[in-house]
Design brief:
- There is one protein chain.
- The protein has 224 residues and is of the alpha/beta class.
- Helix content is 52%, strand content 11%.
- Helix 4 packs antiparallel against helix 5 (110-120) and helix 7 crosses helix 8 (165-182).
- It starts with a helix and ends in a 20-residue tail after the last helix.
- InterPro entries: P-loop_NTPase, Thymidylate_kin-like_dom.
- This is AAA family ATPase.
Length: 224
């Protein structure tokens, strides 16, 4: 399996600094999970060291079970639980990333919790913005962008979640604002999956795929 150094040489520039972590963010229905999983799988098929890591917050689980139990969590309580879980998963996955000589493709990050706070009208606080900024200095960051209507259709097609158009519009605007302010790359998530993966490969400095099997999987469970 190719090491990071070998990967850089393959790319035609031995001095090229291939990132150790690539973070994919975007609104619900943007295709984050699907793209991240497929990108990591494709790199592995081509002989590179790669792994997928999901920085979950438990939001979907909390929402689903609160409805089933007839419980309404106060917004502050739900955010606190989500932020603790998300911070723990980011810390654990960052540790995993530091122990492989290859690329870790992360689905979501701490900024996703800040987007949720912004959309919910909550104060951002001081600690979480600092942690988000500090933990994303080295990783390469990508925002997958899709039209809110397409995102809505994808969410509905999953049949296990629901997001309003107002939420999808607001979260999309917030991700695009963050991308502009932080100079993150924006990729059109409405493209066919192979094209999205090709864009990710190019951005991360990997050569074009040599694999002929690029079967498009079913839509992933993409949730903040």
């Amino acid at each position: 399996m190719a090491t990071v150094t070998q990967q850089a040489a393959i790319c035609g520039n031995p001095a090229y600094n291939i990132p150790r972590t690539l973070v994919i963010m975007g609104t619900d229905g943007a295709g984050k999970t699907t793209a991240a999983k497929e990108f990591a799988r494709e790199l592995e098929r081509d002989g590179f060291t790669a792994q997928f890591a999901a920085n979950v917050s438990g939001r979907r689980w909390l929402t689903r079970h609160s409805r089933a139990w007839g419980i309404t969590f106060p917004t502050f309580t739900q955010d606190f639980i989500e932020a603790v879980i998300r911070t723990a998963t980011v810390a654990a996955n960052s540790m995993r990333a530091s122990h492989i000589n290859g690329l870790t493709v992360m689905d979501r990050h701490l900024y996703c919790q800040l987007v949720l706070r912004s959309v919910r009208g909550q104060p951002l606080g001081l600690l979480l913005p600092w942690l988000a900024h500090s933990s994303i200095q080295k990783p390469l960051v990508v925002v997958l962008d899709v039209d809110p209507q397409e995102a809505f259709d994808r969410v509905v097609a999953r049949e296990d979640d629901f997001e309003s158009m107002d939420y999808l519009n607001a979260s999309r605007k917030e991700y695009l604002r963050l991308a502009r302010e932080n100079s993150w790359t924006i990729i059109d998530g409405s493209q066919p999956l192979p094209e999205v993966v090709t864009a990710l490969r190019s951005l991360a400095g990997y050569p074009a795929s040599q694999s002929r099997d690029r079967t498009v999987p079913s839509a992933g469970r993409d949730s903040l």
